[in-house]
Fold:
Amino acid sequence: MAENAYYTLLTSLPHIDSLFDSKVTPLSRLQLDRRLSMLSREDMETLVKVEQIMQWSHLDHDVKEEALIKLASQLVNGFNSPCLRELINWRLDMRSVVAALRRITRGEQAPSISRWSYGTRYAYIRRNWSSPTLGLQSTFPWITDAVACFEKKEHYKLEKILLGTIWSKLNELGANHRFDFEAVIIYVLRWSLVARWTTYEGKRAVTRFRELTELALGEFSAQLPGEKAY
Structure:
């Protein structure tokens, strides 16, 4: 795809200024996909693969590790862009760290197999399983706060820390990519973070409203007719 086409695409996209101050995404996914249709087939296939491996849902649910390891290896080896290789490896390292902290919180021992995760640090993490911060506090300063969140079961705070960390990494990489394919990918990933955060905040607000309503109504909350609308 010609460079001027990337410029045309990126200048057509609304600016995303902030993650945590955002109330809604700057445009819908349908609108975003319509703009992205300007990409070549090859670029679109690459974008889909990057989104697939960067999806935040991999941090929420158990996934088939072998499948993700295979996909990650294929992606990293298939990218010509140093920026994308760096981003994917960094994100997978982060995923491995969070997966390890979750297992440690559950009282699990270090994995018995050497290739238990993906990225570039899974072997190092396995060797430093007994360290509270997996020996990576200098490389990933957010680990100390993440460990505290796991211990206190502060899921909301942990979510905010991790999303903010990814946001900062994308901004760091984006500073060197303004109107190229990497900039397109960074924009889409930033959009996805805003979508994730605003959805999370919305669900949290509903939950909090329910708690306050039940607290205020007390025993009368059970007497409300029909299903609760909130």
About this structure: DSSP finds nine helices and no strands in the chain.
